[in-house]
Design brief:
heterodimer; A: about 575 residues; alpha/beta; Rossmann fold; 2 domains; six-stranded mixed sheet; two-stranded antiparallel ribbon; 25 helices; elongated; B: about 130 residues; about 30% helix
Chain lengths: ~575, ~130
């Protein structure tokens, strides 16, 4: 089986090409650095099966971050390379193309975004380009699928041309200049409305107000969509579901199985948050409380990603992120982390140094609450008043900033400056947005449901064997004495390692005051990441840095929890 | 000659040239007089303001178009700039300059790029007459 690797500069559309060729779906967006790991897929050509590998984007074969190292590694394994180039920016893309050709591997060049090049008045003579490079050159439009039958048909023609000898940098640039002069014509392009918007949104004076409006609009949209879904779809569904569980409950009668499946009846009724049965809380929390917000968040994020606004936001926030040891690109892992910490921590790979990656991953784990948990905070604290929700987020923001400043001082190493390409604004394709949102929702369901079930199961077992009492007793000095919370909250913190959303739900039966709830939910974010985040941090940072991060989290939780108690509850 | 009159006009820290007189807190008037003096010489000699000298892209005014003369700094940095399209002889436009020593946004070949202030200081340009 042949290994075919997709290589190319960042944000040229490799992932879309990959989806086209394999039919497998991978996340693609309009900003450089979407793909940080490789994906494998298969395609059949005649009778032969081929393995297609989507690699992260790279400007050259000298890697400058972890994602580019992955690309370089994939390059080594390739039998055939599809060099995906941005037709609107051929000159720059040719540098990597030449480097690939010098390595004497068979290459086929896909000139992607061919339609956009045509619109912007760039004319490329394909025949001449083929003669210059001695490889097949195929114009493609990955989004629509234009040119793909040609691309696949010409795989066989791809071979390593003997004519391109290894060169040094200046020779390579000379060669590129020569090629571009021969094959490309650029007609003058008028500035469009989009260019004007593009500049307004990246200049400090106009960009900052625009960013504030955009972020608040996005936030409002997420809450609005989430609430609408709950009110009009999920709550009515559960109204229909209640009689079914009630009859199961009556049929089962009291006993162990009833406790496990239905849980405790509260005033003879099922309380979906407090009952703690597999068929009640185990289904209600992930589907009726979390899923609506997951849908809302990821559809808004997908639109955000595909317009190309994120790199502009990265530019505007660069100065701020410098104070906390990263640069503006750090906002992208943080945004992804707001959905789920796992992809957030993974996205830190696009940061250049170990210091930046450590700070980014730790800050995400410590102070960026995921959507599953946020949904529960909205649902539970929101009923007492929005001011409490705001209190939680304001505290987390303060923790984010101050931890960042401290880590920036403590951690040795470099924090290089930002160097980020700003993609043109593009209109998000509705199908792509839907597909991407669906992929992420499916991923949530697959990851979340088993853990919620496991969590509910463990809670029941722990209560049954009296472990909860025992554990509460041990941690009482800290939880009760220092944080000012009831000692039963210890179990919620324990379950929080499995699922933070479920843990927030567990706080409700403890009859705490809203301010105590604020402290408890804030601590649930800070003290420790959930098991999935823990695993990915372990993999990305290594065991030593993971331990360092964990100690930092525990220390912060202790201090912040104590401080909040003093401020909010008094002595 | 202008360099002798006020060396700070060329340094990064002075920032915006047109606000130079604001920078000297002690003797604001002195700087103002110097600036007027320079401007008179420039006017007399008939040299366009920007073409006076080669300067890092960071000292250009927002919106100015210039030509990249050379890149300074280490090999790794120079290479990094070239592969993203910032090379000698290219026309470059300063789109935005962010405050508090924030990054600059430049446009080369119709593409915008955000580059840290220190890095951008190593891109030496000349405004064509």
């Amino acid at each position: 089986m042949k290994k075919i690797v997709l290589m190319g500069n960042p944000n040229v559309g490799k992932s879309v090409v990959f989806s086209r060729l394999t039919g497998a779906n991978v996340i693609a967006s309009n900003y450089p650095g979407t793909t940080v790991d490789f994906s494998k897929g298969k395609m059949c050509l005649g009778k032969e099966g081929h393995e297609i590998i989507d690699a992260p984007g790279t400007y050259s074969l000298e890697p400058s971050n972890k994602a580019e190292e992955v690309a370089f590694e994939m390059f080594g394994q390739a039998d055939l390379i599809i060099d995906v180039a941005d037709a609107t920016n051929l000159e720059r893309n040719l540098y990597l193309t030449l480097q690939l050709l010098e390595q004497k591997k068979p290459v086929i060049l896909a000139l992607n975004m061919w339609d956009e090049a045509r619109h912007t008045g760039i004319i490329i003579d394909l025949k001449k380009l083929e003669n210059e490079l001695h490889i097949p050159v195929v114009p493609t439009v990955a989004l629509s699928g234009e040119g793909f039958s040609d691309l696949v048909r010409r795989f066989d023609e791809a071979r390593s041309p003997g004519e391109i000898e290894p060169m040094n940098d200046s020779e390579r640039w000379m060669k590129i200049g020569e090629i571009i002069g021969n094959v490309q014509q650029v007609t003058h392009r008028h500035h469009t409305l989009w260019d004007w918007i593009s500049e307004a949104s990246i200049r400090p004076l106009t960009g900052v107000p625009i960013a504030l409006v955009v972020i608040f609009a996005a936030l409002w949209l997420v809450i609005f969509i989430g609430n609408t879904l709950i009110t009009y779809i999920f709550d009515p569904l559960f109204t229909l579901y209640t009689p079914i569980v009630m009859s199961i409950s009556t049929w089962l009668g009291p006993g162990l199985l009833h406790d496990l499946l239905i849980g405790q009846l509260i005033d003879g009724q099922i309380d979906y948050i407090q009952s703690m049965g597999l068929l009640t809380t185990g289904i209600y929390v992930p589907f009726a409380m979390v899923l609506p917000y997951i849908i809302a968040f990821y559809s808004v994020l997908a639109v955000f990603e595909d317009t190309g606004y994120l790199p502009r936001l990265a530019t505007l926030s660069d100065t701020f992120f410098h104070r906390i040891g990263m640069h503006g690109f750090g906002i992208i892992p943080v945004f992804l982390g707001l959905g789920c910490n796992v992809p957030g921590v993974l996205a830190t790979r696009s940061l250049e140094t170990k210091k930046q990656r450590f700070i980014a991953a730790t800050l995400i784990a410590i102070s960026v609450p995921c959507m599953a948990k946020n949904a529960m905070v909205f649902g539970i604290l929101g009923s007492f008043g929005m001011v409490y929700v705001i209190l939680v987020f304001a505290t987390l923001f303060l923790v984010f900033v101050s931890s960042g400043i401290i880590l920036n001082r403590l951690i040795k190493g470099d924090s290089p400056e930002i160097c980020l390409e700003i993609p043109p604004y593009r209109k998000p394709d509705p199908m792509t947005v839907l597909k991407k949102t669906w992929m992420r929702i499916r991923w949530f369901l697959k990851e979340a449901i088993p853990f919620v079930f496991l969590g509910v199961l463990i809670i029941n077992v722990l209560y049954a064997v009296g472990f909860v009492e025992w554990l509460g007793g041990i941690f009482a000095p800290v939880i009760q004495g220092w944080f000012g919370l009831p000692k039963e909250a210890t179990t919620a913190l324990l379950i929080g390692f499995l699922r933070k959303d479920l843990a927030v739900g567990m706080l409700l039966p403890l009859a705490m005051s809203p301010l105590q709830l604020v402290i408890a939910t804030t601590l649930l974010t800070i003290y420790f990441p959930c098991v999935g985040t823990f695993a990915v941090m372990f993999r990305e940072l290594g065991i030593r840095d993971m331990i360092k991060a964990t100690l930092f989290m525990a220390g912060t939780a202790f201090l912040v929890g104590g401080a909040m108690r003093l401020v909010l509850l008094g002595l | 000659m202008a360099e002798a009159a006020n060396p700070r006009i060329f340094s990064d820290s002075a920032g915006e040239n047109d606000q130079l007189w604001l920078n000297n807190e002690k003797y604001p008037a002195r700087d103002l007089i110097r600036l007027i003096f320079i401007l008179i010489i420039v006017k007399l000699l008939g040299i366009p303001k920007g073409a006076l000298m080669e300067q890092p892209i960071t000292s250009l005014e927002t919106g100015t178009t210039a030509v990249i003369l050379r890149l300074e700094g280490g090999h790794w940095f120079q290479n990094k700039m070239r592969v993203i399209g910032i090379r000698e002889q290219k026309t470059i436009r300063l789109v935005a300059k962010h405050p508090f020593n924030g990054p600059v946004v430049v446009e080369v070949d119709g593409r915008e790029m955000t580059i840290g202030r220190r890095m951008a200081g190593h891109i030496i340009t000349m405004v064509p007459e």
